[in-house]
Amino acid sequence: MARRGVPAAVPPEVGGNSAADPAAAHAPRHDDAAQRLPQAFAGKAITTAVAPDEDRPAAWSPRVFALIEWRRFEAVCEALFAQAGLQTRSQSHGADGGVDIWLHSRNASGPVAVVQCKHWQGKPVPVSAVREFFGTMAALGLKRGTYATSSTFTRDALAFAQANGINAQDGAGLLQLIASRTPEQQAELLAIAFEGDYWRPTCASCGLKMVPRSNSTTGEPFWSCSQFPRCRGNQAMTAAAKARLEARG
């Protein structure tokens, strides 16, 4: 578990956020035959073949969310709450019970709110996902929660969130929140976003970085845990990553 920040009262921006690509459900099955790496990705190329070839943005914009992986997105969200004076607790991988970040205040003995993060691109968060998060809040006895996404929410999801004490923060809202911080705080958040191999997905099962592999039957590239076969975590690769992979192969 990790803790950030200094305990303080909950600010108005806190309502109550597993970051996963919705396409991950369609990633290739992890059989041994599907783990063969293309010859072009031998050695060091494994970790660089899919890296963005453009310069990192020097300021916050929607492009930042598009470039970073899900774990970096969660880290940015956690840092936002820490900057607001809250003490935060999170875990980097494994089953999270529907909670990515726990928020604590010096005025309460337990958590005052919880956060779920969804690093999605191009797909709005549906009402079913927000309703499930509300169920998690109820099970924990909490009335406040934040659902943060790099994407958007459906109209029904926003209505449900507003009616049930959930602070729904979409990508545009998060950028507005970041813009309200001091230049120093914005720079800190940007450094957190681009920390390490920010473009390479973290395995949700074990917390280590993933590598590109290809399905031996279809040739379709996908992300696989670098610890395969010890860990069989995998997720689908975005169209942009596939294009870079093909161009450099």
Automatic annotation (TrEMBL):
GO terms for biological process: DNA restriction-modification system. Transmembrane segments: none annotated. InterPro entries: Restrct_endonuc-II-like (IPR011335), Restrct_endonuc_IV_Mrr (IPR007560), tRNA_endonuc-like_dom_sf (IPR011856), Type_IV_Methyl-Rstrct_Enzyme (IPR052906). Residues 1-32 are annotated as: Disordered. Keywords: Endonuclease, Hydrolase, Nuclease. Pfam families: Mrr_cat. Residues 68-178 form the Restriction endonuclease type IV Mrr domain. GO terms for molecular function: DNA binding; restriction endodeoxyribonuclease activity. This is Restriction endonuclease.
